[in-house]
TrEMBL record:
Xref: Gene3D superfamilies: Metal-dependent hydrolases
Keyword Metal-binding: yes
One GO MF term attached to the UniProt entry: hydrolase activity
Keywords: Hydrolase, Metal-binding
Pfam families on file: TatD_DNase (PF01026)
Taxonomic lineage of the native organism: Bacteria, Pseudomonadati, Bacteroidota, Cytophagia, Cytophagales
SUPFAM superfamilies, per the entry: Metallo-dependent hydrolases
The species this protein was found in: Aquirufa aurantiipilula
The keyword Secreted belongs to this UniProt entry's keyword annotation: no
Signal peptide residue numbers: none
UniProt protein name: TatD family hydrolase
Length: 257
């Protein structure tokens, strides 16, 4: 299985890396894709990738909740890094209006700038969106971004938004929320073809049942996969094969091994 979104450079994993790695491999995890947050997290992410190039795949980007007064300096740093480092995608980028909208305009500017990077470098984007789907869709529908593609990480929109994003060519990242008793995610994505879905954990966040409330791990990806297979009434093996193929298509798009 491929976990398309997990923060393995978090201290929760790095302080016990050998144990965590063994646990993930035993659970059948083949690869884990690493979304970046800000300049501070980049060094830890890149170092982890360098020591585990066959298992970890790096993304680069400025997460919307880290867009503050210094966002232009951070963008300048990442743009320089892009000039001499090969990455899988631009991410985790996007919009987040959940806690604070003080930097809403700066978030939009940072997101659009990084979308242009993706086009320039022929990379896809890994998109974080929370309470901001109207603005996200307005941006992605712009003519200048018509050739963009990527993953909508931890999709949390409604069925209409899911259809719009899929019609625009995006893949939806499905994680632990799918296993929550009162979540509507299954209903919202029930018409999305499996060819437009990938699996993720967002570890160490959003643990699936039966680990909800505890730190998440890519080792728990199987619980998400099984739940999605049950909803779609197919075997776990078939579900994993399809979602892995979807992930590999994105990797090929970026020409990343």
């Amino acid at each position: 299985m491929i976990d398309t979104h997990a923060h393995l450079y978090d201290e929760h994993f790095t302080q016990q890396w050998e144990h965590a790695y063994a646990e993930m491999k035993q659970a059948g995890i083949e690869e884990v894709w690493l979304p970046n947050c800000d300049q501070e997290s980049w060094a830890a992410l890149w170092n982890l990738y360098q020591g585990n190039t066959s298992f970890c795949k790096p993304m680069i980007g400025l997460h919307p909740t880290y867009v503050k007064e210094d966002y232009l300096l951070q963008l300048a740093f990442f743009e320089k890094e892009l000039a001499n480092k090969k990455v899988l995608a631009i991410g985790e980028i996007g919009l987040d209006y959940y806690w604070d909208v003080s930097f809403k305009e700066q978030q939009i500017a940072a997101f659009e700038a990084q979308c242009h990077w993706a086009l320039e470098h022929h990379l896809w984007i890994d998109v974080h969106c929370r309470k901001a789907y109207a603005d996200l869709l307005a941006i992605l529908k712009k003519k200048e971004f018509k050739d963009l593609t990527g993953i909508i990480h931890c999709f949390s929109g409604d069925a209409r938004e899911a259809k719009t994003l899929v019609d625009l060519g995006y893949t939806l990242g499905i994680g632990g929320v799918l296993t929550y008793k009162n979540a509507n995610l299954h209903q919202d994505i029930q018409d999305v073809p499996l060819s437009q879905l990938v699996l993720e954990t967002d570890a160490p966040y959003l643990s699936p049942v039966p680990y909800r409330g505890k730190p998440n791990s890519p080792a728990y990806l199987g619980f998400i996969a099984q739940k999605l297979a049950d909803y779609r009434e197919i075997s776990l093996l078939e579900l994993v094969d399809i979602t892995n193929q979807n992930a590999c298509a994105l990797k090929a798009y970026s020409n990343f091994e």
